[in-house]
Each structure stands twice: as structure tokens, then as C-alpha cells.
Specification:
The protein is mainly beta. The protein is 3% helix and 32% strand. The chain has a six-stranded antiparallel sheet, with no helix packed on it. A four-stranded antiparallel sheet has the order 2-5-9-8, with no helix packed on it. A four-stranded antiparallel sheet has the order 13-14-15-16, with no helix packed on it.
């Protein structure tokens, strides 16, 4: 046997560390910061909910030689009719204690009116001040107020009672008053209409323009609504619709991405398509967590009801569809498969 000599490992020749570049510090100075500009909407913004004061149930005499109008009573004779009412028969206005009709009032002949004259309804133009409760509800409640005539059964909410009859009213939102003509012996209420100068606040009906269906086997409820798009110069405009599926959230677990779409939970609105990445469980990389981790370069492009996986070219660093038979027709802005 021939003994082998021990060979020492090879090392690189040592070299000295390069010199460190020294930078000369630059002397700075403080930059003056201008104060923010005043917000013009800050003065109009509410700091707290406005106070709401509803009139208490009370009664007052309007017109005639004797008037028992108290301070703060919301009903008075309309301007222009007060002088003529001095010579006419007075009327009595009673505010009723009810919370189902808004501001309810009963108009009856005043004191001193003869029985024969009281039997005939007399018309009088009155003005109702709602400035104390114009912000009681939302949707620009004050500007939607108008006077309606009621039947006696409306006070109890009896079934089969006739619907309120709107009275021609003039709503002055600036002064917070409603002016209308009333008759003695009638029951009236100041209530809000469904629409007003600021828009329509009525309940939106489920029109035929939207479609819905229910899966009898799966219990999935789907709903779709086509959105209107402006006409295009090329002739054909893209179709945009809002879709909802109650079953789209059934399969979500703690290990999946449970983030809702930008249209809401269960809704999908993808007018231009989207590109998303695929992730893998972090436990595959040895991490003891239920989170999802990065899974190399991957992407999936979805446009409408078609999707294709994208692959990254290692040479050009560009993404291209995995299937060569998928392309985008720019002229008609539609997908075609060769």
C-alpha cells in the first residue's frame, strides 16, 4: 500500500477591502408648510343631528273677531286671507295626538257660528309651519310634505279604510311652510309624499328589466340586471350586467380567499374582465399556518364567460395565453376561438 499525501484545500488570495466613499453632508433648512385651505363644505356640514320639535296636541280659533291663536301653534290663516277672514266665520283647528298620520288636524266651524251655517262646509286657506320637524326623517323629508284629506277610520287604522286624498298644496321649503285650502268638518294630515324636488324616494319595483331564478335542487337564488351603456362609434356597444348568486359564497372556507367582490357579497360585476393569481397553502412550504402563500408566477385571465391561463415567457418576460387558439378581436371587441 502506498500512503497518499494529504492535500491542503485551495483558498483564494486575500485582498484588501476597497475604500469607502465619504459623502459630504449638505446643510438643509426647514421648509415652511402652508396651512390647509378652508373647506367650503365644512360650514354646511352637520356637527350633530338637528333638533326636532313636534307640536303638542292643542286647539285654536282662527279668523273672526276673536282669535285664540297661541305662540308656537303651527297652523294659521294663509297670507292674503287673514283680513278677509276677519269678517268671515271663524274656524277651529285641533291638533290630534296620533303617531301614524304625521301631523293630523281636525278643522271644524269656530265658536259663534250658527248651526245652519255650520252644516255647510266652508273653505279656508291655511298655512302650516313645519320648520320645527322638517328634519325628522331623511330623504329631504320637509320638501316632500303636503296636506292630505283623511277619513275618520284612518285614526284607528281600520282595515278597508279609504286611501288619503292629496290636497293641492304649495310647499315653500325656504320658509318651511305648506299652504293649502281646507274645508270645515274635514280631517287632514301633513304627510310626506314619495317624491319631491330632490328626487323620487319611493321603493324601487322589481321591474321586468331584471331577471331572477331559483334552483329547485340546489336552492341557489340568482338575479341579474342589465346596465345601460352609451352607444359606441363602431356600431356595437359592450354589454354590462350585474349578477348575484347566493350559492357563490357557500363553498368558502377558512382556507380560501373570502374577500367579497367590489360589487358586494355574492355579486359579480366585471365589465372589462380581470386577471387573478393562484396561491397555495403555506403548509406546503413547511409553515404551520392556514394562510395562502405565493405560488410562483401564474395568472388567469377571465373576460365574460371565457377564461384562459397565462404563462410567462422566460426569454421575453411577457405573458401570453396558454392556448394558442384564443385571441382578442379588437375590431368588434369580442372573444373568438379559432
Amino acid at each position: 500500500m502506498v500512503e497518499m499525501a494529504y492535500a491542503m484545500p485551495a483558498y483564494a488570495a486575500p485582498r484588501s477591502a476597497p475604500g469607502v466613499q465619504k459623502e459630504t453632508p449638505v446643510t438643509g433648512e426647514k421648509v415652511p408648510v402652508k396651512p390647509p385651505l378652508a373647506d367650503p363644505a365644512a360650514k354646511q356640514a352637520w356637527k350633530a343631528a338637528p333638533a326636532v320639535t313636534w307640536p303638542k296636541p292643542q286647539k285654536a280659533e282662527l279668523g273672526g273677531s276673536v282669535s285664540t291663536l297661541k305662540a308656537g301653534f303651527p297652523v294659521k290663516l294663509a297670507p292674503g286671507t287673514a283680513r278677509a277672514a276677519q269678517a268671515a266665520a271663524p274656524i277651529s283647528v285641533e291638533l290630534l295626538d296620533t303617531d301614524r298620520l304625521g301631523l293630523a288636524m281636525r278643522v271644524t266651524p269656530g265658536q259663534g257660528v250658527a248651526a245652519a251655517a255650520a252644516a255647510k262646509p266652508a273653505k279656508t286657506r291655511v298655512e302650516v309651519d313645519y320648520s320645527g320637524f322638517r328634519y325628522a326623517y331623511g330623504g329631504d323629508y320637509g320638501s316632500r310634505l303636503r296636506l292630505v284629506k283623511l277619513e275618520e277610520c284612518a285614526l284607528t287604522g281600520a282595515a278597508g279604510c279609504a286611501a288619503p286624498q292629496p290636497v293641492k298644496s304649495d310647499n315653500n321649503a325656504a320658509s318651511g311652510t305648506v299652504t293649502a285650502e281646507v274645508e270645515t268638518g274635514g280631517l287632514y294630515a301633513l304627510t310626506a309624499a314619495a317624491s319631491g324636488p330632490s328626487g323620487d324616494h319611493a321603493a324601487t319595483s322589481l321591474a321586468a328589466s331584471s331577471d331572477w331564478s331559483v334552483g329547485t335542487q340546489s336552492g341557489d337564488f340568482t338575479w341579474g340586471y342589465d346596465l345601460r351603456t352609451p352607444p359606441s362609434l363602431g356600431g356595437e356597444e359592450p354589454g354590462v350586467s350585474l349578477g348575484y348568486s347566493s350559492q357563490s359564497v357557500d363553498g368558502r372556507t377558512a382556507s380560501t380567499n373570502n374577500q367579497a367582490s367590489w360589487a358586494g357579497e355574492g355579486f359579480e360585476l366585471n365589465p372589462g374582465g380581470y386577471i387573478e393569481r393562484r396561491y397555495k397553502s403555506c403548509m406546503i412550504d413547511g409553515k404551520k399556518t392556514g394562510d395562502l402563500c405565493w405560488d410562483q408566477d401564474n395568472a388567469t385571465m377571465s373576460i365574460g364567460d371565457s377564461s384562459v391561463e397565462l404563462v410567462k415567457d422566460a426569454t421575453t418576460k411577457q405573458w401570453r395565453p396558454k392556448r394558442d387558439d384564443w385571441h382578442q378581436d379588437r375590431g368588434a371587441d369580442r372573444r373568438h376561438e379559432r
